[in-house]
């Protein structure tokens, strides 16, 4: 046998061995989380250790060091780093009782603690680089350097820097940093919801979403774009990740929109915007919502209730823009033979509503989201077996668990990396310092402070998934808004909303980049078009910070009043941006619609009066202009 053949055979065996290890770890980890979901978690630090270290091993085995390298070259590094993660995990489990029983900062740290702590931080940064790109590790490194050298920074950025042993102790051996709340949420609620989404996908849930959306709105004006909006909002409740949403539905909807006459940048923007909004659409809102509930110490149901109206406004903005664009371009809907019949679709797929209804009911019964997710998984597995189209065999069961573990890598690693930033804020008191910085820069002016926080959230979210973007911004910026007098839930929803919007806000817009690859168009064009589609959504967080009726915390009459005026405002801003209503708008009409729309979105009595006046003037002027144009069109042929 030649040397090349021997090398080739060894390489094949190595790849098979790695795939086998990935399969075993993925399935066992999913079973572990199912067990803890049904029978209760183990001690918090141990739960987080098992969860994070297992998923870091998977991250190194499934995300290569460099995509341009050969599989053999990658394997040498990937397997080595995975083995180091295994050693660190075993070390933490062996020394678990000593670690959780010690007094923080009074260890002292052993040589093993010191060495493995440094290794874990370096490995975590490398794992984050692989799964989410460079942005998050760079932020974590910057905050770490700032923590250690902050006493050399000029005022007002000066902090009291801890010694390196205290810094490392806090990062590695306490439940306040790497193994803090973000990792804890990933190890409990989030993984089970990812598993629920994987089982839905494996039982053809994705096909149900597409068929249901097609049957619901496919024949309407601009039907393909509306299918994208509906499908992405539904798919988003499963995946809770904007990029995953784009790939999950965009591979179908973007080509369909292009085929029906939409420009590539508009088709990509609709998908990116709709997919991004899935993270704020209850009942499943992605990892950040669970983390918010944990930080605020409220039930997940409370977060869902607060998110309902902002989420609906977001989708009204996207839906209005797509409808007006379709009217403007005279784009028809799909024909009857291109759309599945609604009642036939509902009859064939109605069993998929059962686990979602079960999830909502269980949450309303005040069970934890952790237990609700577990029960919903069991219900889904039972009802899936009642139909041939969704029935799971053993292979499908294993594949769903393996997919959940792979998808969990992204959330776990990014949450743990964001935990480094959280640890820095905790050990240095930087969060309190940020309040001082914003207060000084804004001069104590509340609206200016809100704008500064918005910019901070959008910048921190550049190239970073929503969960870590929210974690970082929530720990830094939310206390600032509370200091200015904002309701705590409103403050966190403000931060969360803009962390979500960062996925479509250029220059680094993850959802736009994903849509760009499918649409064959520049991600920057798609990003700016998506911002235009959702421009009124950038006003909504300012509105609910001033009036929490938009978050459901008011009498029903006030909520209805705010809802009606806000929907009118969002639609008016969409018309102004798209430059069309019944016919093209003139400059003055656009200004009236834009100004009036923003005013009525803000839930105050005087702003509603001003806004309604502007909208009334804009509508009257527009109708007069349209009538005048029609008269001129009739007169011209006669002349």
Key words describing this protein structure:
mainly alpha; disordered N terminus; 639 residues; globular
Give a quick summary of the entry.
With 639 residues, the protein is mainly α.
How would you sum up this structure, described in words?
It contains 29 helices and no strands. Helix content is 76%, strand content 0%. It is mainly alpha-helical and 639 residues long. The N and C termini lie far apart (93 Å). The radius of gyration is 26 Å and the shape is globular.
Mean pLDDT: 86
| Share in β-strands | under 5%
Number of E-state strands: 0
Regions with little confidence, pLDDT below 50 for 5+ residues: 1-7
Task: Classify the secondary structure makeup into a structural class.
Answer: mainly alpha
Radius of gyration using CA atoms only: 26 Å
Helix content: over 70%
Helical region count? 29
How far from one another are the termini? 93 Å
* General form: globular
| SSE ordering | HHHHHHHHHHHHHHHHHHHHHHHHHHHHH
Largest sheet: none
